[in-house]
Amino acid sequence: MRVDKYLWCIRYFKTRSIATKACKEGKVRVNGDIVKPSREIYPTDKITVRKNQLNYELVVLDTPKSRLGAKLVDIYRKDVTPAEALQKLDLLNYSKDYYRKRGTGRPTKKDRRDIDDWFEEPNDTDSEE
User: Residue 68 has what pLDDT?
Assistant: First the structure.
């Protein structure tokens, strides 16, 4: 089976064209070598995939016939990604929250209307009559 099709089948990429693009950009390695999307893979091959600033490592156990459900993925691959790499992912998520909290920054249209209503001068014509 082709490496791009395999990565799509085991749900590492949403579409096969994205998997092909990742192979062409050099983000996929098989047994330590950068590969083309058409490279055949076999059981016991070690694949390294760079995705979201993280290097995922997996060992091919078998090749599926077509795309799998999420629960069946572990039958065809063994994830051997180091725990330190997964901790880096947590740190990246925390660092994003540290720099900018959700909801801060430029006001939305609704926020702008609320601000304008707050600073708007009250109409004194109704109270004088």
Answer: 83
